[in-house]
């Protein structure tokens, strides 16, 4: 065991809510996900609610996610037992006359909710509500982006997401402004849900970035407020000089100790006619691919000990992240949920 690794099997981590899928990806088939090493199956009930359950049939352990949905129930692919959204066995086809077989015949459901265009799951007794991340406001649009697994620790993507110094290098082919790698040291403010970071960055603005920025020059300025919702959500609200706001919600949901599921969507204050969704997604795809390639190339195991690495002034947020994760592990920090509406109309909490 590496000293300072986040031990995600500690029960505290299971008590947070995590986005496990974009809502649009849960349709008429069961969907498999893994959260904190627990295989889970998701499916939709006829009223649109999403059910989450441990992906194991009590009969012979078959994964229910390989089955199908009938009458709002999940059907096990092995012998066809049928379970409803409460987890109860509704039909045992081999003995259809049997009913109420008792709770040993149930599947284990877990907390699931649809909110903000994502499906959120909590495997245990929640320590708090689903965080009050910025939600869709009138006149804004929701753009679903990514729902995929990466071979890196969730904490590494969070550190990367609060790291203003990497853009010049990792994103040199997209928006990194290579003229000046010295970055402003970001300012951080503690918040009841984590912290917020503000910074201003000069960014390159090549042709394919102009839909995103709403600007036509070769370079532009990005004013960014980045919110950290512990333990693994980043909301980056970037405002460009033309008044366009591009807010990216990035959830690095821990699949296990070395993999994450990226669930990402965007909120924008303009319209499809101003900036086609396909172009916005394709730009963010390029950028996330750059981060992914770098992060997946790191072979060393992740340690959240502050002293496990050396730092520079611009790493202030990474250090704050490590300290906060340490407190969560130690059981000395819990989030609070407070809502307010920011000046730009996006709901933020303070
Ligand atoms: S394993 Fe599921 S019905 Fe037999
Ligand atoms: Fe990046």
* Distance, first to last CA: 37 Å
- CATH class of the largest domain equals Alpha Beta
Report the average pLDDT across residues: 93
* Shape verdict: globular
Strand arrangement within the widest β-sheet reads 11-17-16-15-14-13-12
Largest sheet: 7 strands, antiparallel
CATH architecture title of the largest domain: Alpha-Beta Complex
CATH H level of the largest domain: which superfamily?
A: Naphthalene 1,2-dioxygenase Alpha Subunit, Chain A, domain 1
> Unreliable stretches, pLDDT < 50, 5 or more residues?
none
CATH topology of the largest domain: Naphthalene 1,2-dioxygenase Alpha Subunit, Chain A, domain 1
Q: What is the number of domains?
A: 2
User: What sequence of helices (H) and strands (E) makes up the elements?
Assistant: EEEEEEEEEEEHHEEHEEEEHHEE
Please give the structural blueprint.
Blueprint: E1 18-22, E2 31-35, E3 38-44, E4 50-54, E5 68-70, E6 73-75, E7 82-83, E8 89-91, E9 109-115, E10 118-122, E11 141-150, H1 154-161, H2 167-170, E12 187-191, E13 194-204, H3 210-213, E14 219-229, E15 233-239, E16 245-254, E17 260-268, H4 277-296, H5 316-330, E18 340-341, E19 347-348
Antiparallel strand pairs: 1-10, 2-3, 3-4, 4-9, 5-6, 6-7, 7-8, 9-10, 11-17, 12-13, 13-14, 14-15, 15-16, 16-17, 18-19
Fe (ii) ion (FE2) is lined by residues 160, 166, 170-171, 291.
């Amino acid at each position: 065991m590496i000293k300072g690794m986040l031990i995600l099997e500690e029960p505290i981590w299971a008590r947070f809510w995590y986005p496990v899928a974009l809502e649009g990806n849960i349709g008429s088939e069961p969907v498999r996900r893994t959260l904190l090493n627990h295989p889970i199956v998701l499916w939709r009930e006829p009223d649109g609610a999403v059910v989450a359950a441990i992906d194991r049939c009590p009969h012979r352990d078959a994964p229910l996610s390989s089955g199908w949905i009938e009458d709002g129930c999940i059907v096990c692919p092995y012998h066809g037992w049928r379970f409803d959204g409460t987890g109860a066995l509704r039909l045992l086809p081999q003995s259809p006359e049997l009913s109420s077989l008792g709770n040993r015949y149930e599947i284990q459901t877990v907390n699931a909710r649809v909110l903000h265009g994502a499906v959120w799951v909590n495997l245990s007794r929640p320590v708090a509500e689903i965080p009050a991340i910025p939600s869709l406001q009138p006149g804004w649009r929701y753009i679903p982006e990514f729902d995929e697994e990466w071979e890196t620790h969730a904490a590494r993507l969070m550190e990367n997401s609060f790291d203003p110094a990497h853009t010049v290098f990792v994103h040199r082919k997209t928006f990194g402004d290579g003229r000046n790698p010295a970055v402003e040291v970001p300012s951080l403010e503690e918040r009841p849900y984590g912290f917020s970071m503000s910074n201003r960055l000069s960014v390159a603005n090549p042709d394919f970035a102009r839909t995103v920025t709403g600007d036509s020059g070769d370079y532009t300025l990005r004013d960014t407020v980045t919110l950290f919702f512990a333990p693994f959500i980043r909301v980056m609200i970037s405002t460009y000089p033309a008044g366009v706001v591009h807010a990216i919600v990035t959830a690095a949901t821990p699949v296990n100790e070395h993999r994450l599921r990226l669930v990402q969507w965007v909120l924008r204050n303009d319209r499809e006619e101003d900036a086609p969704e396909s172009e916005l997604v394709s730009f963010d795809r390029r950028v996330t691919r750059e981060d992914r390639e770098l992060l997946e190339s790191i072979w060393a195991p992740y340690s959240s000990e502050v002293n496990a690495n050396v730092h520079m002034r611009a790493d202030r947020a990474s250090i704050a992240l490590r300290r906060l994760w340490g407190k969560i592990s130690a059981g000395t920090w819990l989030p609070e949920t407070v809502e307010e509406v920011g000046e730009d109309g996006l709901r933020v909490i303070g």
